[in-house]
Automatic annotation (TrEMBL):
Domain STAS: 80-186
Source organism: Skeletonema marinoi
Keyword S-adenosyl-L-methionine: no
Keyword RNA-binding tagged: no
Protein's name in the database: Calmodulin
GO molecular function, one term: calcium ion binding
Matching Gene3D superfamilies: EF-hand, Jelly Rolls, STAS domain
Taxonomic superkingdom: Eukaryota
Boundaries of every EF-hand domain copy: 445-468, 510-545
Amino acid sequence: NFIWEFFVLQNLPKDIQPMVPGLLVVFVLGIVLSTFEFMFAFMHKAKDPSIRCGDVCCSSAVRSDKHDSQLAVMAGWFQVFKVDSFVFFGTANTLYQQLKAHLAKQKVTLPKAERTKYLIFDLSEVTGIDSSARDVFYKVHRLLKSEGINLVWAITNPKVGEAFEDQGLYVGAIHFDSLDLALRHVEDELLRKAHHLSEKWLVNQTVRDIFQRQVLVNVFNISVRAEEKSFASSRLRPWSKIITLSSGEELCGGDDDNLYLLYSGEVQVQERDGSHFDCFTGSFFNLDHVLVSVGALAGLPATIGAVATKDSTVLVVSRKNFLLMQKQDSALGQKLLLTLLAQKEANRPGRTRTRVPYRDSSDGSDEPVPIHGVARRLLAGDDYKISLTDAQVERFSDVFDLIVAPGETEIPMDDFSSFVSMEARLLGSALSHEEFMELIDKSGIDEDGDGSLSKEEFLTFLRGLFLADIPSKEVESLRQAYDEAVAVDPDALMDEVRVEALFKELGFDMKSSNIGDIIGAIDADNDGDVDYDEFLTGIGMMKKQTILSKQLDTAFSNYMNQSKAAKRELKRRSTVESDSQTVPNRRSLLTLNKKAFHSMGKPRNIMEQANLEDEEGVELTASDLMAFLNIKRDEAEEMVFLADQDEVEVDRIDAVLELTGTNLNCHRSIDRVEFQQLLRTWS
C-alpha cells in the first residue's frame, strides 16, 4: 500500500493513474511469456552435433555412373556437421570443441591428402540461435579458415540466415537454403578438382593420346553386357529422337510415359510428394512412368513434371519404341531396363555411395606380368588384317546411319565432332568441344581430306581404334589353339570364362587388359558363344591393348626417370646453395625444422625439395610427382591418393610429432597397374 500511495498516487499524473494496473499486468505477462519461451527453447535445445562423412551424405542430383564413382573415391574429402533445434552458448561451445577434436583426430590418423576439404554445417533444422552463441560460430569460421577447409552453411530458417548475414558470418563462406543444395555444390566442386588433378598426368604426349583414345573408345562402346554399369547412348539413338529445351520449358507432365535422357544442360524433376531433384548430363528421368507401364515397378509413378533450368538437349525414347526394342534388340532392351532400375535405386532418399574397395595385392596383382608365348610373337608383325565382326559392322553402321542426314551418304566433319563431343560429355568427359574437334582432326579419320566422312572411312577408323593387325604366320597356331580349347568340351558354349583362359594360355597379360570389355565388344550379338571369327577379332583387340599397355609402361618409366633426373638437379643446386650459407647452430636448426614441418603442403623451395627421399622403387610417389611436374606437395599427394588402390598403413613419426603433433607419414604410391587403371576410369 505504501508503494502504491507514494509512487503512484502522489507522483504520477491523475490521467495516467487508471492505466497503471493494466500496464503492470502487461509487464508481468511479458515476463511470464519470456520465461516460458526460454524454458521451451531450453527443453528443446540442440542435441549434440553429429558428423557424417561424404559417402552417407549424397545430394538428390542424378549423375553419370562415372561421376558417382569418382565422388565415392573422394567421399572422405567432405563431412556434414548437423545441428538442430535452438542453439545456446553451451551447445555452440560443445559444437566447437567437437569440431576441434574431429580435426585434431584427423591430423593423427590421416595424411593431409585424405583429410577434409569441405565442411557443411547443416543448420536447416535450427529454430534459433542465442546471441551469445554467435561468437562461437566466429571461432568456427576462423578455425576452418586456418586449416584451409572450405566452409558451407546450409540454413533454411530465414531469421537464422538474416542473423548470420547481419553478423558477417557469410563472409568468406558459401551459404545455401537447404542441405541438398549445399551437397550438390560440394559435389560439383570436387568433380572439378578431380578433373583438374587428372589433367596434370597428361604432360606426356603418349599418355595424352591414350587418354583421349579412351574417350573415343567409351563413345563407341557397343557392348550391352548386363553386368556393365553404363553403355554408350549411341545404341539408343535409332530408337529415339533428340529435342532441345529452352530454360524454363516444361515437359513430361500428366500421362507422359516417354523416357528421357539428358544430353546437356540441367533439368529439375518434380515428384508427387512435393520434393524435387536435379538431373545432370548422362542421367535418365521420367523413368518411373516407363517402369510402371512395363510392370517393373509397382504403385503410382513418382514424377509429375520436369522443367529445364538451363538450355538443354534431351534424347526421348517413346514407350512404343521402348517395347519394340525389347522384342527386336533384346540385349539392348534388357541392359536399358537394368540401367533404369539401378538409377531408380541410386536416387532413393537416404542413399549412400559405396566406397571403392581396396585392392588385394596378396596375389601379386601389382606385379608386372610379362607377355610370353604366342602373345609375344604377335607383336613381331602386322601383315594379316584383322576385321571387325559382322555384328560389330552392323552396330557401327547403325551409328553412322543415325548421324548422317537423310538422303546423304557422308557426314560433315563438324557434325561428326559435335556428335562425339555430345556423347562423350554424356559419359562424364570434361573435354571441350574445341578439344574434341582437335582430337577428331588428329585421328586422321577423314582419309581423303574432303571435310566429310564416308561409312567406309568411319568403319576403317573404328577398326584402327579397337584392333591391331597380326603376323600372318601366327594365324594357323591361333586356329589350332582355338580348336583345341573347343574340343575340351565341344557341347558347351565358348563363353567368357573359356575365352579368358585361352587368352591367358596364349601368353597375354590378363591383369592389364579389361577382358570384360573385350568379350562384350566381340560378342556384339550377345549370344554368349564366341566363334572363331569373333575370337580372332578378340586377338586383335588384345594385341591393341597390349601395345597401349606397353606404351603406358614406357610413359610410366619416363615419369620415374624424369623424377630421378629432377631430384638429382635439385640436389646439385642445393649443394651449391648450401656451400654459400653458414652452417646453423642446433637451436636455429630446430627452429628451421619446425618451420619446415609447419609448412607441409606449401610450395617447397629448392633446399626442401632436394632433401626429399630418393625412392628407387618401381612405383611413383608424391615426391616423384613434385619433382617432375613441379607441383605443390598437396596436389601431388592428392593425385597419388586418387590413383592408389591399396590399403596402406599410416605411421606416426615420433620426431615429427614432437615438433608439431600433426604430421604423418603415409606410404602411398602408384604402380603400373594403378596408373593404367587411372587412365581408363578417369578419362
